């Protein structure tokens, strides 16, 4: 019986291998000639792979199996050169930009691009002097790399950019605690690229965010009189009649908002919110922020928020406001506040991806902020789980 099965299995394996090879050949035939930026990234991947242990994932890039768009390659080269330069002179703020969006970086001049390449080439010369596979990235990084490669193979990630970037970050900051490198990498990405920095957050890093989960309830004494608040103070929506309530100084009487019962003045905090499809706002309000009338709730008035208008316009209420791409519009939002690091980040919980990050030094208490004008669908504050659900196809590799 086993021999019969083997007789069937072996030809099937051969057919599968031939089909795979055929698809790869057709893909190569259709591929446009690679430009200098794409070739530069491929060579850099090979250099990183030579030095690092557990770097097989980079072979997909160095062998051109994973080729990034030319504009992405240009952006990466400019951003990584910026990181190298800022590490050499951390006290200076001139020179390479530290907080530029990739779109702006990609449109830099050819002269800037060539200068950036020279910075990286100088660094790789020192890198090549190191023995082969002499750098162990650490167990935490290896787990993240396996997660990223698995998602890429299943088509859930467009490229292995995050994996290569993690290797680059690991080599650049070899003095860091290896167990914290994935978290440090995420914080750097959100600081340097505020919009959609990480299209997929690896599950161990997501768990680290969720570990900061806090119970948040609405402070009914701050709620606009038009809002209906549930008994458990975790749901709200607009009603049809304005309630007769005391006009406390902390109550919103213009915008349809309320803040959380407890504010934060230190530490890490994370909460999740199910939002409507048409109009909502989320974020934090500074204790000194004005709450009366219809003055804009933006960074100038003490608010760091994300806002959806008319179901299609997602924006960060900076001054002027920052328009965000429609594909980033979430249905369940994770809000992560690292008070001591001065970061407030928003995530799409369903996709486990980054939306937007505010970076500034905090010096007063911050209160979770919630706003909605929807009369049918509740805005709901959810308690985040202690661990995310791993997306392994079979038995979970990480427990």
Automatic annotation (TrEMBL):
PROSITE patterns, per database record: B302_SPRY (PS50188)
Pfam families: PRY, SPRY
Domain B30.2/SPRY: 196-388
SUPFAM superfamilies in alphabetical order: Concanavalin A-like lectins/glucanases (SSF49899)
Top-level taxon: Eukaryota
Gene3D superfamilies: 2.60.120.920
PANTHER family: E3 UBIQUITIN-PROTEIN LIGASE TRIM
Protein name as catalogued: B30.2/SPRY domain-containing protein
Gene: LOC114794325
């Amino acid at each position: 019986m086993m021999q019969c099965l083997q007789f069937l299995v072996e030809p099937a394996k051969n057919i599968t291998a031939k089909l795979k090879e055929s698809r790869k050949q057709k893909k190569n035939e259709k591929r446009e000639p690679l430009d200098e930026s794409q070739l530069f990234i491929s060579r850099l991947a090979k250099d990183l792979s030579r030095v690092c242990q557990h770097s097989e994932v980079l072979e997909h890039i160095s062998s051109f199996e994973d080729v990034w768009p030319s504009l992405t390659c240009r952006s990466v080269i400019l951003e990584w050169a910026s990181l190298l330069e800022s590490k050499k002179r951390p006290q200076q703020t001139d020179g390479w930009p530290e907080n530029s969006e990739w779109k702006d970086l990609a449109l830099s001049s050819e002269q800037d691009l060539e200068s950036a390449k020279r910075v990286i080439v100088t660094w790789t010369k020192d890198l090549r002097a190191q023995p082969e596979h002499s750098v162990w990235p650490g167990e935490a990084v290896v787990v993240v790399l396996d997660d990223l490669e698995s998602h890429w193979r299943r088509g859930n990630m467009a490229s292995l950019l995050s994996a290569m970037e993690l290797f680059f970050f690991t080599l650049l900051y070899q003095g860091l605690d290896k167990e914290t490198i994935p978290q440090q990498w995420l914080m750097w990405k959100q600081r340097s690229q505020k919009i959609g920095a990480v299209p997929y957050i690896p599950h161990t890093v997501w768990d680290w965010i969720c570990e900061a989960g806090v119970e948040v309830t609405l402070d009914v004494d701050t709620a606009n009189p038009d809002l209906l608040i549930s008994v458990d103070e975790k749901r709200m929506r607009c009603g049809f009649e304005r309630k007769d309530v005391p006009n406390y100084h902390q109550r919103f009487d213009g915008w349809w908002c309320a803040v959380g019962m407890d504010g934060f003045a230190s530490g890490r905090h994370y909460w999740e919110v199910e939002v409507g499809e048409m109009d909502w706002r989320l974020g934090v309000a500074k204790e000194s922020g004005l709450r009366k009338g219809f003055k804009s709730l933006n960074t100038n008035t003490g608010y760091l928020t994300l806002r959806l208008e008319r179901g299609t316009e997602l924006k960060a209420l900076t001054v002027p406001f920052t328009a965000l791409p429609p594909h980033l519009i979430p249905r369940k939002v994770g809000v992560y506040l690292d008070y001591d690091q001065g970061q407030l980040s928003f995530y799409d919980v369903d996709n486990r991806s980054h939306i937007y990050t505010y970076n500034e030094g905090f010096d007063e208490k911050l209160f979770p902020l919630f706003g909605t004008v929807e009369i049918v669908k509740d805005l709901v504050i959810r308690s985040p789980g202690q661990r995310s659900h791993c997306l392994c196809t079979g038995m979970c590799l990480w427990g």
